[in-house]
Amino acid sequence: MVSIISRVLVACQHSALLRSFAKYSGKCSHCVKNFEQLKPTDDFPQAFDAPPSHVRRWWPAAVAAVLLVGVIAFGAATNSGTDGTSTTSTAVSGPTTTVPALKRTLKAGLRGPDVRRLQQRLKDLAFDPNLIDGDFGYNTTQSVWAFEKLVLKTPRKKVTGSITPESWQLLQQDNLIVPRRPQAPTETHVEIYLPEQVLVVFKKGKPILVTHISTGTGEDWCEEVTIDPGEQGNPGTEPLKKGVCGKAVTPGGFYYFYNRKSGTRQSKLGTMWNPVYFNGGIAVHGAAQVPNSPASHGCVRIPMHVSEYFQTLVAYGDRVYVFDGVKEPEQYGAPVPPADKPDPDYTTTTSSTSTTSTVVQTTTTIKQKPTTTVPAPVPTATTSTVAQVPASSLP
Known about the structure:
The chain is an alpha+beta fold. About 35% of the residues lie in helices and about 20% in strands. The chain folds into three domains: about 1-80, no CATH class; about 115-170, no CATH class; about 200-340, L,D-transpeptidase catalytic domain-like, CATH 2.40.440.10.
């Protein structure tokens, strides 16, 4: 660096002397060209002894400029390799904020500023705990479940719903969740992880929602259901009640959102709040009960507070990937849920009335048998006795 500055200083001084010589010599133009061949004489004492006053006036500024150039040149030489390649420099970051360490394990039922900090951090990372109120309630527990299962890789059946000082430190990191399908064809896509019971909405590869869910149990079921007009199984204009049997399965595969409804909807798969459909009657919807286990007839249950805005995060055509932990979604294609069927044991109110009517007819027939010696009481007693016989056959 000293060598560089010295050469620059000499060059600048030489340039100043050239200008001084040209001004004071009064010689012809070729004198400047031959300046280096001249030797000091009495005719040009200032040219070699000291620069003129106007040069001396600017000399400190010139020296400062030379030093600046030297520092820049030294930095460039330092950052350059001998082979001519450049290395990446690290930008100086601003002051960092120190996050207070967690002094206790946070879990359901606790309150305090540390709980509030946890809720805010969960919110920042898209694990929505609902209210940021310092009260570790059920919604906060559900958010912690999602964090445990997806980030800590805790098996679903072993989650605790609590945050230790160690897991609190892990929560301070960014980019904890990355998509399994970063090249999804839509800007926004949803990934549903059945083994973990977690759903993530990604936008441009970044998570904008991470939520605990509850999906199909995989069990057979038979129930009386109410089906709203427009839902599968009811093309009419009035709600329809019927007995249905089905299998509670959420199939793995890849799909897209194609329909949505607002408010409460009744379907063969149960009661839904703000459903967004992606596979026949299967939808992502709000539910009052979203336990830490599969509990639905096949739909994807999400907490109610999440369902209030979930529809604003996705659009028709957005891709949905359902991972079942066995095969990749693309290997399945887009399988539909198992077909349901009428419940063979289901009896409607109308059929019960008909059965009662039949019993009355039997009673009427027996009324003809009493003797005339006790006309009044015999029919009454006989009627009561006969009416009790078929009672066990009523639904």
